[in-house]
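Translate structure to sequence.
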C-alpha cells in the first residue's frame, strides 16, 4: 500500500516541526524586499534580498537568529500563513493553506532540490543584498512562472 504524503493527509497545524520546515522549497522569494502599490495593494518583488540571504544557495545565513538580527523577518506559522498576501503564489505554505497541492518541482514531490532552480522558481543569482542598494536603485523582478506552474517539465 502506498503511503499518502504528510502534506496531503495533515493540516498545517498538525505537522511536526520537521515536516513544517521541509515544506520550504528554498526559492527564497519570501526573503526579497517587497513593495506594495498603495493604490492597488499589489505586491512587487524587488531584486533586493534580506541581508542574511545567501544569494547562491537561497538559504538564510543565520536562520536560528534571523528574527533577532532582522526584526521585520516574519516567521511563518500555521496561524499566519493564510493571512500573508505577500507570500508568492508558488509558496508551499500558501498553496497548502489554500487547499492546493505542491507543484511538480517542489523537492518533496520531485525528490530533488535542483528542480526549484530548473523550473525557474528560485531567486538564486537574481538578487543582491538590500544593504548594497540605494533606495532609488530598487527595481522589481518579473517572475515568468506560468510554464513551471502549469505543467511538469519534460
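Result:
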Amino acid at each position: 500500500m502506498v503511503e499518502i504524503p504528510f502534506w496531503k493527509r495533515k493540516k498545517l497545524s498538525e505537522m511536526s516541526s520537521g515536516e513544517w520546515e521541509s515544506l520550504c522549497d528554498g526559492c527564497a522569494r519570501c526573503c526579497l524586499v517587497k513593495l506594495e502599490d498603495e493604490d492597488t495593494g499589489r505586491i512587487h518583488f524587488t531584486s533586493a534580498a534580506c541581508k542574511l540571504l545567501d544569494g547562491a544557495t537561497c538559504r538564510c545565513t543565520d536562520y536560528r537568529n534571523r528574527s533577532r538580527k532582522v526584526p521585520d523577518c516574519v516567521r511563518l506559522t500555521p496561524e499566519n500563513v493564510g493571512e500573508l498576501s505577500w507570500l508568492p503564489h508558488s509558496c508551499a505554505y500558501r498553496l497548502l493553506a489554500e487547499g492546493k497541492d505542491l507543484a511538480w518541482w517542489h523537492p518533496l514531490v520531485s525528490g530533488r532540490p535542483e528542480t526549484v532552480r530548473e523550473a525557474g522558481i528560485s531567486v538564486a543569482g537574481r538578487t543582491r543584498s538590500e544593504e548594497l542598494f540605494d533606495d532609488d536603485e530598487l527595481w522589481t523582478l518579473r517572475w515568468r512562472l506560468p510554464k513551471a506552474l502549469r505543467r511538469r517539465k519534460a
